[in-house]
Amino acid sequence: MPIDLPHIIDGCRKGDKMSQRRFYEHFSPKMLAVCHRYARQEGDAHDMLQDAFIKVFQNFSKYDDRGSVEGWVRRVVVNTAIDHLRKHKYQLQQTEVNEAIHETTNAEDALDHMELSFLYDVIQSLPEGYRMIFNLYAIEGFSHAEIGEKLGINESTSRSQYTRARSQLKKRIEQVYMEEKIYKDVI
């Protein structure tokens, strides 16, 4: 059954608990998936989600109906996830771009054979700092300058973390691709 989102948004602005509940039920599954990309554990993802929706409801007056409400909520969720990781002392290695390892692989060919769940698992296996930068840049669309500002790091550190994350992802994808190819050749 379709929901009347403008009516629900109006109710949320007025502090109506039923509207807030319907809003939460509508957006929480997608936003929990966003939280999972940043959290290592299920409980952390749920904590991020809860904190984010508290901020959403407290700041509904700041949503000005320009752009999608889902995009606005997503920004709140991402910023809350970053705050949560900061509070729990994530660590980024301060490195320069020229220190990052650049390797070419067959990862692009392997992507044709990947399942989405595998790719999600590979991203989740990245060290926390690499994973956060990868998510912010590749998935959320932040620039390295914006990431640097949000996280209080140099833009070059964001670039090198992203490069290292990509390198690790490529290595893992290539490894699985080669294992699959060898398996198929044996059979």
What can you see in these coordinates?
This protein is mainly α and 187 residues long. The termini are far apart. About 12% of the residues have low confidence.
Oligomer: single chain
Helix fraction bin: over 70%
Tally the helices.
9
Beta percentage is under 5%
Report the strand count. Answer: 0
The main pleated sheet reads as: none
What is the N-to-C order of secondary-structure elements (H for helix, E for strand)? HHHHHHHHH
Radius of gyration: 19 Å
Mean pLDDT: 82
Tell me, what's the shape? globular
Structural class by secondary-structure content: mainly alpha
How far apart the termini lie comes to 49 Å
* Weakly predicted, low-confidence segments: 91-113
Q: Which key features would you list for this structure?
A:
single chain; 187 residues; 0% strand; mainly alpha; 9 helices; globular
